[in-house]
Specification:
This protein is mainly α. It is built from eight helices and two strands; from the N terminus they run H-H-H-H-E-E-H-H-H-H.
Length: 165
């Protein structure tokens, strides 16, 4: 990590904004889990299932485990919960009946529709001109890749060190 004295003012502001976004996202996730009664991994799994369905790409338990960063045993427990609530189904893949295909049910898709991006976020994304949208997308994808390699604990004050002048 860079020493605070070598961080430029503009970088400091960007890092503080990223920390603020992370905290806001955590708060939003907590509200979503409280509202839906689903666990965080359940919501994440339902997002993966919805995306796979939209892309018409079959997804199985191994794909969920990789996408969520959990074990196959944890995926089994997670799928048991989702099936019990009627949000997902497991079925044999037509091309290889030994492997499973996981799909979101209509009820699962309805639950996820209620968790779509808030209107303010969607409107902000739609207000970007194509060039700015490309830059923002690239920055967010790079940030996601960087965050995927390092998973520090997130707390409410995580951006405070970058707010100092």
């Amino acid at each position: 990590m860079t020493d605070d004295t070598t961080v430029t003012d503009s970088a400091r502001r960007v890092l503080a904004a990223i920390a603020d976004l992370r905290v806001a996202e955590l708060k939003m996730l907590r509200r979503e889990t409280e509202r839906s009664g689903l666990k965080e991994n359940d919501l994440a799994a339902m997002r993966l299932l919805r995306e796979a369905g939209l892309a018409e790409r079959p997804i199985g338990p191994k794909d969920l485990a990789a996408g969520l960063g959990i074990t196959s045993a944890s995926v089994t427990v997670l799928l048991d919960r989702l099936e019990k609530r009627g949000l997902a189904t497991r079925s044999a893949r037509s091309e290889d009946r030994r492997s499973l295909r996981i799909d979101a049910t209509e009820a699962g898709l309805e639950v996820m529709a209620s968790h779509d991006q808030p209107e303010r976020i969607r409107a902000l994304a739609e207000s970007l001109d194509p060039h700015d949208a490309h830059v923002v997308e690239r920055v967010f994808r790079d940030l996601a890749a960087a965050a995927d390699t390092v998973a520090p604990a997130l707390d409410e004050g995580s951006g405070e060190r970058y707010r100092r002048a």
